[in-house]
Amino acid sequence: MADYDYDLFTIGAGSGGVRASRMAASHGAKVAVAEEYRVGGTCVIRGCVPKKLFVYASHVLEDIEDAEGFGWTVEGAKFDWKTLIANKDKEIDRLNGIYIRNLEGSDVEIIEDRAIIKDKHTIHLVNQDRDVTAKVILIATGATPNIHEVPGHELAITSNEAFHLDELPKRVVVAGGGYISVEFAGIFNGLGSDTTLVYRGEEILRGFDDDLRTHLHAEMDKKGVDIRTGVVFERVDKTDDGLAVTLSDGSVIKTDVVMFAIGRNPNSKGLGLENAGVEFEPNGTIKVDAYSKTNVDNIYAVGDVTNRANLTPVAIREGAAFAETVFNKNPVAVDHSCIPTAVFSTPEIGTVGISEEMARQQFGRVDIYKSTFRAMKHTLSGRDEKTLMKIIVDPASDRVLGVHMIGPASGEIIQAVGIAVQMGATKAQFDATVAVHPTAAEELVTMKTPEPQPEAVAAQ
Ligand code: NDP
Q: Which fold is adopted by the domain 341-459?
């Protein structure tokens, strides 16, 4: 071990890199982590955390509107973007400090610099202009937003900049139909921006259960988001009073801000990976095995740079499994199936397991239990918003294959349901669970009758 400066050198102090570094250190390894921006990574600094704070902010207006039905009169409510940004920044600074203290408390050395691989055991620190050596190198550099290279694309922002806009745009156009796009469309719309979402496909949230996709679309419509599908950007131009987006159908949208949310690219370019012979895909995804090892024996990669399931908790799992495998001599592979996830759209989505479409492909005949209802709160608020819950069951084994829901607190609920689904719970076991009343979630244990099978519907 004395042959190297470090047992482990981690590049990137985001969710995956921090967890891997701390756990490796807890197993006795001498660890350094290099970070060129801020400790905490995308999730903490410019992703999940500030996004969720924005989502809370964007729901307040609806809460105020709903208050009337409960007898409240709220007068003079005003929103101040600068206050939100300042408070959000304060919270991010606090979390950044905690991450730094946790690393230091675990005896992990933090190196604030860009690190480039020179060979399989040597790392060059760019600003400090020095080399260090390590027995094992971990790449945990995350991903960065894609840009649609149409004329005028440089006038657009991505989610990175959306967290630091000087003012709330009066009008905004968001490109993309994935997680970030629907979440930010909900945020801007909820805060009062005139919001348009432009998606190239037929329906937003490709890959999710179709009922979730159409339900979210309908609810976003009701809330006033202008969703344009089947179109792409042709160009973005500067105008006297903002920007103009020209779409492939010839229509022009006048706006103040254009935001691209069209996927993310792994941050693997310019890292010197080729100097060590690390293999990656043309799009930059680093190829790894089940234990996060690259084709080079002592170089590993975790998180979004490996493009497996690009979610913070997954990166954390991969980081922990790597440290356990390499530094505790206990090989652990992360199971990437059955990952519960939430989309913090408005309303919110929670989902675990496979979609109806996938279930029919894999199992042929499946039973679908579905409930669409008005949440109790809205009986008094009068808001026209529906909640959807859906359970997909393999009739042969009675096993629950997927649970999909959209409505308030879906993210919170799906975390608990995810335990049952990944344990292989059956529909009978769901039904045997006593309902919690009055809640929306009780629908999950009270749906008794499956939807008619498609062939029965077709025959009618
Ligand atoms: P997604 O992969 O979720 O969605 C990308 C969207 O952009 C898709 O609708 C895609 O269309 C569209 N798109 C891709 N390329 C183009 C193009 N050239 N022109 C027009 N549209 C295009 O990516 P996001 O950027 O929304 O988010 C990145 C990842 O971050 C997510 O996949 C998720 O893993 C993670 N994330 C998770 C969150 C959470 O857990 N709540 C929140 C935010 C992000 P198509 O469907 O047709 O391919």
A: Enolase-like; domain 1 (3.30.390)
